[in-house]
């Protein structure tokens, strides 16, 4: 009888422990769902990364190299090139930016700009960081690049220089374009580059509100002023992308840049970001700051239509030594943007990863694995700006031929002089590259195909 009682007591205890374990698990799951944290398999759009802004160490990552739509995170690069022009003295904050019919037609969110009017560079910048104004973004792009397509090529070229190897820009605002892709890792690099390269302008990202044409616009970044240490940077949303956010945080001698992409709602995205900040900021270094991303030489010095190269542009007459560069593996967007919206659950719970970020490539050279694909070279020029604009002009002349290719520049030295190769990368095979080059030659565009 005693043995039976003992077995009964043990069974009861085991059942109680089992019940407690189940209840605990259900309670934790409830907390995770309430805070917007769920298994990653539930949200195929999610991607995230936290980087120590002092050391470059990656403290957390999830799908950080998977291609995503940047949405209005795109405007971070639009602002990078604007700050570059300001720093070089090519424009000032009081320069007047003309508004074209094309810019004024951009859909909300916008500043309701009208064709023929102008606004200052200062107003355009503040319109981007607070209202995320699409019309102001396009106006800036046309002002700095002569056209939005040229400016988009400049954006992609700058991305390569900054080590953003998987990012392609096709517009300045982030409205849907199936070829405009990025990754959480690339967005983290851009966030750090903005902080490092333009400290004199970085405070724009902490603007809480902006008044234009007697209307006040609040910043879309809900964490500003609510989470200690958050000083920017940018939000983004389209139906295809989900809710995106890049945050810069500096507190208690520590500094991080965190990225959340693909949130189901702004609220769950913000909750996930707060979770990342609370969890990983205490793990960041308290050491001294060091430059993580090399500043690219030159820059878009005179990126206007008058820059379009003429007869002085040398075409590729010989095959220079092959250097490594980055291939872009493109993805097709679903035919319907609405169909791309998954029944997404909230973002996944952070998984702790401690790994050194890949070495940043030198700013003037695109980098990737040798033999990763084929590219086409169309010119070798003495200026990076000319190379970027030449690529844009070539793309404009043969949009169908180069629809899936990505324009990049890379440097080489000859006779003590630095030159810039203008190339289109991303061809999957020799026949694809040779066929594209043959089509370009029919349009009187000199080129040759080369394996990466």
TrEMBL record:
Highest taxon of source: Bacteria
Active site feature: 72 (acyl-ester intermediate), 75 (proton acceptor), 132
Residue positions binding substrate: 234
Protein keywords: Carboxypeptidase, Cell shape, Cell wall biogenesis/degradation, Hydrolase, Peptidoglycan synthesis, Protease, Signal
Keyword Nucleotidyltransferase on entry: no
Domain SPOR, first and last residues per copy: 368-452
InterPro entries the UniProt entry points to: Beta-lactam/transpept-like (IPR012338), Peptidase_S11 (IPR018044), Peptidase_S11_N (IPR001967), SPOR-like_dom (IPR007730), SPOR-like_sf (IPR036680)
UniProt GO BP: cell wall organization; peptidoglycan biosynthetic process; proteolysis; regulation of cell shape
Keyword Cell wall biogenesis/degradation: yes
Xref: PROSITE patterns: SPOR
UniProt-listed Gene3D superfamilies: DD-peptidase/beta-lactamase superfamily, Sporulation related repeat
Family indicated by similarity: Belongs to the peptidase S11 family.
Stated name of the protein: Peptidase S11, D-alanyl-D-alanine carboxypeptidase 1
Source organism (scientific name): Nitratireductor indicus C115
């Amino acid at each position: 009888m005693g043995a039976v009682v003992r077995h009964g007591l043990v069974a009861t205890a085991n059942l109680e422990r089992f019940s407690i374990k189940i209840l605990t698990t259900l309670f934790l799951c409830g907390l995770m769902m309430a805070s917007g944290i769920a298994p990653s398999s539930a949200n195929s759009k999610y991607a995230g990364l936290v980087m120590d802004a002092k050391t470059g160490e990656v403290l957390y990552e999830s799908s950080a190299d998977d291609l995503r739509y940047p949405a209005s995170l795109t405007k971070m690069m639009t602002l990078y090139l604007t700050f570059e022009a300001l720093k070089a003295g090519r424009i000032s904050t009081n320069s007047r930016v003309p508004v074209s019919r094309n810019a004024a037609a951009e859909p909300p969110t916008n500043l309701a700009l009208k064709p023929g009017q102008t606004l200052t560079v200062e107003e355009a910048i503040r319109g981007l960081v607070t209202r995320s104004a699409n019309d102001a973004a396009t106006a800036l792009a046309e002002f700095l690049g002569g056209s939005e397509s040229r400016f988009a090529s400049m954006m992609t070229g700058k991305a390569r220089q900054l080590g953003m190897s998987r990012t392609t820009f096709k517009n300045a605002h982030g409205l849907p374009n199936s070829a405009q892709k990025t990754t959480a890792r690339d967005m983290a690099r851009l966030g750090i580059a903005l902080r490092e390269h333009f400290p004199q302008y970085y405070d724009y990202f902490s603007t809480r509100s902006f008044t234009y044409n007697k209307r006040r616009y609040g910043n879309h970044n809900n964490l500003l002023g609510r989470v200690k240490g958050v000083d920017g940077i940018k939000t983004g949303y389209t139906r295809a992308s989900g809710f995106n956010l890049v945050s810069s945080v500096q507190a208690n001698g520590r500094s991080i840049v965190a990225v959340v992409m693909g949130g189901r709602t702004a609220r769950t995205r913000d909750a996930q970001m707060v979770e990342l900040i609370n969890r990983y900021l205490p793990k960041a270094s308290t050491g001294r700051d060091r430059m993580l991303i090399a500043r690219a030489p030159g820059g878009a010095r005179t990126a206007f239509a008058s820059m379009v190269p003429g007869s002085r542009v040398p075409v590729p007459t010989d095959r220079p030594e092959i250097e490594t560069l980055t291939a872009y593996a493109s993805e097709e967007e679903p035919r319907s943007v609405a169909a791309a919206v998954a029944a997404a659950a909230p973002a996944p719970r952070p998984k702790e990863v401690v790994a050194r970020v890949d070495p940043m490539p030198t700013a003037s050279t695109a980098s990737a694995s040798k033999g990763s694909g084929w590219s086409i070279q169309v010119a070798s020029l003495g200026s990076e700006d000319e190379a970027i604009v030449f690529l844009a002009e070539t793309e404009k002349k043969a949009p169908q031929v180069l629809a899936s290719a990505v324009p990049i520049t890379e440097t080489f030295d000859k006779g003590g002089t630095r030159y810039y190769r203008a190339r289109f990368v991303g061809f999957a095979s020799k026949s694809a590259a040779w066929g594209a080059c043959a089509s370009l030659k029919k349009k009187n565009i000199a080129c040759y195909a080369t394996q990466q």
